[in-house]
């Protein structure tokens, strides 16, 4: 059963993960495991039937095991970071394609049939960009693929027969056959020219043009990020040293275990080799997440999802707000049981009154408390004024008394 792209992960089999073989690295390392087992058996036979005594100390196992473990952890984390970065960049590219499709389909004006056909053709290029990126990351250069040829049939470079092309185009085509072509970059030129054409003809406002250009720039940024992951492998010296350290540890392990474990040392060494070589194999498996292996990113499914979403988006005419807002089935005020069309016949104050009654600021108890508080404040204000007047009269009398005493003196 093929993998499914959806909300669940690893749904291709009902068997427990422990019993699954597909998707593991066992098929890639089983020869190495047999080699380790054969070497361990030879060490055991030498120990069993000869007088040569093997080293007994386990210090080498402890020291080498810790070093190899740290190297393998770093290697696996580095590989998974590349895997996750590839997934993050693809999600960002998907977001840009969605935004560009939405902006073109909704914001670009349609005054005639040609405008609609131009919009649909430009949106087809966005879908083709996703498929072209997938093939480009897998070193599948060219455009003669079932998922691309129909989307690029209206591009002159890919539709005109070679015999009818001018000499310059023939030379360019011959150059493409000898050197890898970056079709996603070429498609960005056509998408950018469409945005420029819409802006020059006044079919779209300036803010939407900015949004579309920013989305196109982000798509190219994602493509450059894909190339960074694809063209920048782990340094060769580090990979070689990691292999050397792992194999030295595995080849030294039988000499350290045979004295204590005897023949049991053979499966024990193979188990240790399965663990370490398996981690090493996983790192190389996910280092390049763009291939079509089982543990790579399901780019085929991602592209199909993008195509399905875009086809669903452009299957109907761009929604007009007046059609869905002022519909008889739209009830903005739930408690009023009036549709938006009925509410539009009322005055602005009446609608505000209905909204206020539907969403009161206070509950009944809170409203009573608020009224009591306001009433108390109003009743306290005259009393405060009377107190102020009384204090003023007392001050005046006191001042008069002081003046009289002064005159008597």
Automatic annotation (TrEMBL):
PANTHER family of this UniProt entry?
UPF0187 PROTEIN YNEE, VOLTAGE-DEPENDENT ANION CHANNEL-FORMING PROTEIN YNEE
Q: Quick check: keyword Aminoacyl-tRNA synthetase in the entry?
A: no
What is the protein name given in its UniProt record? Bestrophin, RFP-TM, chloride channel-domain-containing protein
According to the UniProt record, where is the region Disordered? 356-409
Organism phylogeny: Eukaryota, Fungi, Fungi incertae sedis, Mucoromycota, Mortierellomycotina
Predominant location category:
membrane
Keyword terms: Cell membrane, Ion transport, Membrane, Transmembrane, Transmembrane helix, Transport
- Spell out where the chain crosses the membrane: 21-47, 53-74, 236-258, 264-284
Q: Name one Pfam family in it.
A: Bestrophin_2
The record's annotation in InterPro entries points to:
YneE/VCCN1/2-like (IPR044669)
Whose protein is this, by species?
Lobosporangium transversale
- Compositional bias per record (Basic and acidic residues), positions renumbered to this chain: 361-371
């Amino acid at each position: 059963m093929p993998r499914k792209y959806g909300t669940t992960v690893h749904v291709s089999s009902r068997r427990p993960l422990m019993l699954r073989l597909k998707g593991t690295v066992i098929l890639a390392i089983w020869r190495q495991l047999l080699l380790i087992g054969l070497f361990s058996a030879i060490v055991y036979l030498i120990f069993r039937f000869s007088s040569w005594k093997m080293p007994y100390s386990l210090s080498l196992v402890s020291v080498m095991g810790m070093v190899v473990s740290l190297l393998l952890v770093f290697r696996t984390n580095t590989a998974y970071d590349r895997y996750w970065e590839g997934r993050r960049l693809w999600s960002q590219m998907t977001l840009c394609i969605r935004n560009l499709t939405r902006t073109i389909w909704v914001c670009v004006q349609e005054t005639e049939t040609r405008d609609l056909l131009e919009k649909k053709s430009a949106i087809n290029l966005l879908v083709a960009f996703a498929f072209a990126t997938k093939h480009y990351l897998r070193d599948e250069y060219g455009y003669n693929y079932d998922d691309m040829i129909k989307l690029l049939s209206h591009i002159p470079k890919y539709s005109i027969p070679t015999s009818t092309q001018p000499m310059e185009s023939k030379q360019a085509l011959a150059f493409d056959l000898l050197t890898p072509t970056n079709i996603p970059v070429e498609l960005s030129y056509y998408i950018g020219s469409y945005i420029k054409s819409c802006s020059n003809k006044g079919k779209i406002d300036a803010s939407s043009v900015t949004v579309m250009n920013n989305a196109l720039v982000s798509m190219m940024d994602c493509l450059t990020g894909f190339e960074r992951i694809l063209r920048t492998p782990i340094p060769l010296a580090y990979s070689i040293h990691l292999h050397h350290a792992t194999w030295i540890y595995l080849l030294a392990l039988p000499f350290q275990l045979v004295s204590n474990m005897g023949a049991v040392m053979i499966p024990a060494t193979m188990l240790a080799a399965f663990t370490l070589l398996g981690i090493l194999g996983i790192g190389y498996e996910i280092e390049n997440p763009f291939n079509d292996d089982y543990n790579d990113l399901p780019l085929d499914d991602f592209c199909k999802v993008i195509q399905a979403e875009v086809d669903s988006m452009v299957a109907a005419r761009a929604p007009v707000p007046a059609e869905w807002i002022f519909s008889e089935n739209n009830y903005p005020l739930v408690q009023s049981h009036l549709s938006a069309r009925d509410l539009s016949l009322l005055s602005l104050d009446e609608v505000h009154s209905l909204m206020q009654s539907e969403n009161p600021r206070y509950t009944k108890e809170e409203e009573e408390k608020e009224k009591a508080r306001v009433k108390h404040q109003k009743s306290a204000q005259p009393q405060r004024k009377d107190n102020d007047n009384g204090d003023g009269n007392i001050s005046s009398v006191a001042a008069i008394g002081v003046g009289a005493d002064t005159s008597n003196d």
